[in-house]
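Long-time lurker. I teach an intro course on protein structure, and each term I like to show students one example going from raw sequence to a predicted 3D structure in token notation. This year I'd like something fresh instead of my usual example. Would anyone be willing to generate the tokens for the chain below so I can use it in lecture? Attribution to the forum is fine with me.
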Amino acid sequence: MHDDKVVVTCALNGVLTNPEKHPVPYTPEEMAEEARRAREAGASIVHLHVREQNSGRFPSWDPELAQEIVDAIQDEAPEMLINLTTGVPSNDDDVIETVFEYLRHVQPEMAAMNSGSLNYLGIRSNGDWKWPPMLFENPVDKVEKFLDVMHDNDIIPECECFDTGILRSLNLYEQNGILERPFTVSLIQGVESGMPAREDLLPILIDEMPDDVHWQSILIGREEIWDVHRRTAELGGHLRTGVEDTFYLPDGEKVDGNGPLIEAVVDIARDVGREPATPEETREILEHGH
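-- Reply from a regular --
Happy to contribute to a lecture. Here you go:
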């Protein structure tokens, strides 16, 4: 069903990028406008991070602010599916409970589910760290708690995998019963201490993935990501881009927002014979699997 359709996700803003330096929306109005542009360009899902409203530099888990942003997006792009981040590096119970409250309050159709731990690293050309080395801590008990909340609130988990070991863990989660269908898989490629953005890696990752699940590539970087987007589309994967992932079009031009990036991946999808799924088709694809 819908094999020629590709689900296109707009990664609207991310968590680390500085709104003063980059075209990153963080107010409800800006995010709603960017979501509308992404929808017009062919995206059916919007993945978003809620940020505090003073500088837009830091994450917020305020349920009321999250709801205000989601309402604004649904006014501007009424059919789009909402996919909320749940990414907290900490394994502190109080912090995690704050995220649960935000999920229960908003009840998005989808939410990111960070599926394993990673040393999150970046290096400068002089050998200095780009930021203090950080452990993105996602032990199994934390993963299970998040999955329980998602299952209880009819939220489809988007299982984010930064390396092959995390991807292979999904099979174990399923066998153990903590992960239930429907869920989707995201292959995060391009983080310096995670999987590289390489076309030749994709067949191996697909082979290690749970059978008959929908998957997408999340590609962090510049010009090297676009060939991997194309290969993803050719191999039956879904597509995601946005200013969370890159600021650069295939020709190297820097974008002023999400719309041109979505247009670029839609062009790639059409080049390989696939059409962007409508929001209605996306819901059918996600609910029913292959």
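Some talking points for your students: The chain has a mean pLDDT of 96. DSSP finds nine helices and twelve strands in the chain.
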